[in-house]
UniProtKB/TrEMBL annotation:
Coiled coil: none
Entry-linked Gene3D superfamilies: P-loop containing nucleotide triphosphate hydrolases
Protein name, as recorded: Putative ABC transport system ATP-binding protein
Organism from which the protein derives: Pseudosporangium ferrugineum
One Gene Ontology CC term in the entry: membrane protein complex
UniProt cross-references to PROSITE patterns, sorted A to Z: ABC_TRANSPORTER_1, ABC_TRANSPORTER_2
Length: 238
């Protein structure tokens, strides 16, 4: 099963920038993929197209087997809400809600029933058992990001996209969050696609895709941080 498939996706912006240039990609379910590349290489555009936040000019995008382009706007929003999870650099938790209310918010937005057992499992997995009644301000940065990760997983999405999910965290806390993402892939079979500038973060993934000028120029299995850092330095100075 493939969680995400891109087939010959092209996306240009006014002014002629080809942010994605004929990109094809298959993300197997239950795998952890890191997307790297110099600034402006197309990482965000790739993620936005893969998540149905942006529509390609040509090519096809499938999430959990459903072709996004075939859906109308309402169905596309529903698919995004139910089948795609997001984790950003800024945790985007609602300050006035408790941690539990934040985590279960996507279910309420989707009009889906609460799933106590899944909430309990997730809280345990992300290490927030006993903190569910707190407000986000009463959590550390790492704990807030863990809550955001639990929120991304509450709908049992086909894929979770991370946009620099550890960008705001200190090194040690970041490593903890990356170990958690790894654990969610290994333990729950979750699929994770993470955009990052940090080779050390990408080294937690099963595979790193390296982008340059709107194309995937390298696919590295079991990436090592040192090798990735070198590869990126070469691209940035080319
Ligand atoms: N809304 C837009 N309008 C015009 N050009 C855009 C727009 N968004 C992105 N671009 C251009 O498309 C290209 C790819 O941008 P994108 O944001 O996908 O790159 P990125 O790899 O995510 O960069 P960064 O690492 O700096 O976030 C860049 O040349 C960028 O300037």
């Amino acid at each position: 099963m493939s969680a995400v498939v891109l087939e010959r996706v092209t996306r240009s912006y006014p002014g002629g920038v080809r942010a994605l240039d004929d990109v094809s990609l298959t993300v197997p379910a239950g795998s952890f993929v890191a997307v790297m590349g110099p600034s402006g290489s197309g990482k965000s555009t790739l993620m936005h197209c893969a998540a149905g936040l942006d529509a390609p000019d040509s090519g096809r995008v499938l999430v959990g087997g459903t072709e996004i382009g075939s859906l109308n706007e309402t169905r596309r929003t529903e698919l995004r809400r139910e089948r795609v999870g997001f984790v950003f650099q800024a945790y985007n938790l609602v300050p006035s809600l408790t941690v539990e209310e934040n985590i279960t918010l996507p279910l309420r937005l989707a009009g889906a029933p609460a799933d106590r057992q899944w909430l309990t499992t997730l809280a345990e997995r992300v290490g927030l058992t006993g903190m569910l009644a707190r407000r986000p301000a009463e959590l550390s940065g790492g704990q807030q990001q863990r809550a955001a990760i639990a929120r991304a997983l509450i709908t049992r999405p086909a894929v979770v996209f991370g946009d620099e999910p550890t960008g705001a965290l200190d090194l040690r806390t970041a490593r903890g969050v990356l170990a958690l993402l790894r654990d969610l892939v290994d333990g729950l079979g979750q699929t994770v696609v993470m955009v990052t500038h940090d080779p050390g973060a990408a080294a937690h993934a099963d595979r790193a895709l390296v982008m340059a000028d709107g194309r995937i120029v390298d696919t590295i299995e079991k990436p090592a941080a040192g090798y990735l850092a070198e590869r990126l330095t070469t691209l940035e100075t080319e």
